[in-house]
Design goal:
Layout: H1 3-34, H2 36-39, H3 46-59, H4 61-82, H5 85-91, H6 96-99, H7 101-138, E1 157-164, E2 170-178, E3 187-198, E4 204-218, E5 231-245, H8 268-294, H9 301-308, H10 317-324, H11 327-393, H12 400-425, H13 430-453, H14 461-484
Antiparallel strand pairs: 1-2, 2-3, 3-4, 4-5
């Protein structure tokens, strides 16, 4: 490999790794801020959170990789242009296209890897991530006692403590209502002090109570429903233990097979199979709708054939009734036609939910199919925008390149998001919905590449000022010439 190629590769790889880490960190923080309420206060083990973060990092590659490619390419060629290394490369007889050749192969290799990742690895990651996030969000928060407030998170109990120590392990002036029997006043326990601790397997919470009393209300087994005879019992104790089942607070892992049919968790081969199966079901529903609706379009057929054989064409329904239907049969014909139309409408309303469900599935499968390819192509496209853009602006560092990269990435992201949403709504074909941003920005990439190879000063403010001054001088000279005439 020539030294120029090695120089450009080294100049690109370092900013790319830094930008990738920064972008991934920002996206990960946005994810944590979004689900902060589902993660805090639930007592997750550290490895559960690390597993969730690892899956999320893999999921965020679809946004982090294109943005990093755009930002690092602008920074690389901006640094080379600012230090006049691009000028030296061109002076040595190498055009910008030749100098970029190994970098183009490198980015193409990355794009091919991103395609393989999105087809083989990303569906598995989405499955693991979706099932784990589902379990995390559905897990109850840890049992927490607040002073002076009843806590009813443990099924069958309401617990209140007037105060507690700094560590929260010792509770004072406890009141516990046991309403597992259906009535909260049947069993009440009062204690001056209680010490909380978990069992060895963390399946139970043990509350050691001191200096208290328990009040119980019971009824004889053979007593009638409205029998006023009841039995009240009072127990005093110096020390006792109350055990609470904490199974409701344990995190339960859901079977991943429940999520396997989701469109984002399928690879290309599976998407093709599910798309064909869904299309068969959709065709079956359409056929059944047609056959059922066909049975209700029969009443006008004899008169319609008679009207078609007439030499004078019939254009209005009123003329059709007066000319071809006997007067005594018109009311009955209209009534029967309205009834048939209502029955046909009922058929459509009955079949519409199933039909819409299969149509939405078909759209989702097609969107996910094209998403596998757009990640790889977006890396190539944003590099094709960033590299010539950096050579034109000739500014390195994290200042202007970051601003320009964010602007162009926002344009790309907004177009792709809006078009994908339109495709999901059915107002745009899934092919155009997923490729719209690439179709719109490809001419821009070609324009910037052309400008960079011709040494255009597209973003030179001084050049634009000079052109504006020349234009203003020409306007003033024309205006003076008109006045002199």
């Amino acid at each position: 490999m020539k030294k120029i190629h090695l120089l450009i590769l080294q100049a690109f790889i370092r900013p790319f790794m830094v930008c990738f880490c920064i972008v991934m960190f920002v996206l990960l923080m946005l994810f944590l801020f979004k689900y902060i309420d589902d993660l805090i206060g639930k007592g997750f083990e550290w490895y559960v959170l690390m597993e969730l973060i690892g899956y999320q990092c893999a999921v965020q590659l679809s946004m982090a990789l294109p943005l990093s490619m755009l930002l690092s390419s602008i920074m690389t060629f901006g640094n080379l242009g600012e230090s006049y290394e691009l000028v030296a490369i061109k002076a040595a007889g190498y055009s910008l296209r030749k100098a970029m050749t190994p970098l183009i192969f490198f980015v193409t290799f990355f794009a091919a890897g991103s395609f393989l990742f999105s087809d083989y690895i990303l569906p598995v990651v989405n499955l693991k991530m979706g099932s784990l996030l589902w379990d995390v969000r559905n897990k109850k928060a840890d049992f927490l006692i607040k002073s002076g407030i009843f806590n009813s998170t443990i099924p069958g109990y309401s617990i209140r403590a007037k105060s507690k120590n700094e560590n929260g392990t010792v509770l004072y002036n406890l009141m516990i209502y046991d309403h597992r029997a259906g009535n909260a006043t049947n069993n009440v326990l009062l204690a001056k002090e209680g010490f909380m601790q978990n069992s060895a397997d963390n399946n139970y919470m043990i509350l050691r109570l001191k200096d208290g009393v328990r009040y119980e209300e019971s009824r004889a087994k053979n007593a009638k429903r409205y029998d006023p005879r009841q039995q009240f019992t009072r127990f005093r104790f110096k020390e006792t233990e109350q055990k609470f089942d904490m199974e409701a607070f344990q995190m339960k892992r859901t079977d991943e097979s429940f999520f396997k049919t989701h469109h984002s968790m399928l690879n290309l081969r599976q998407l093709k199979i599910y798309t064909d199966s869904n299309r068969i079901q959709l065709d079956s529903i359409q056929r059944s709708i047609f056959l059922e609706a066909k049975n209700y379009v029969t009443y006008l057929s004899p008169y319609y054939h008679e009207a078609q054989s007439s030499p004078v064409p019939v254009k209005k329904f009123d003329n059709f009734l007066t000319d071809y239907v006997p007067k005594e049969q018109r009311r009955m014909l209209i009534s029967n036609a309205l009834g048939q139309a209502q029955q046909m409408n009922n058929v459509f309303e009955m079949k519409e939910p199933d039909f819409k469900a299969y149509v939405e599935k078909d759209i989702r499968y097609h969107i996910e199919f094209h998403r596998k390819f757009t990640l790889a192509v977006s890396c190539l496209l944003l590099f094709a925008i960033g590299a010539p853009l950096g050579a034109i602006i000739r500014k390195g560092g994290l200042g202007l390149p970051v601003v320009v990269a964010i602007i162009f990435f926002l344009i790309y992201h907004i177009i792709s998001t809006m078009s994908e949403k339109a495709a999901k709504d059915g107002s745009l074909d899934p092919i155009f919905g997923m490729w719209m941003a690439i179709i719109v920005l490809s001419p821009l990439a070609m324009f910037l590449t052309y400008k960079s190879t011709t040494d255009s000063s597209l973003f030179d403010i001084e050049q634009y000022k000079l052109k504006m001054e020349k234009a203003w001088g020409w306007i003033k000279s024309r205006f003076r010439r008109r006045l002199s005439q």
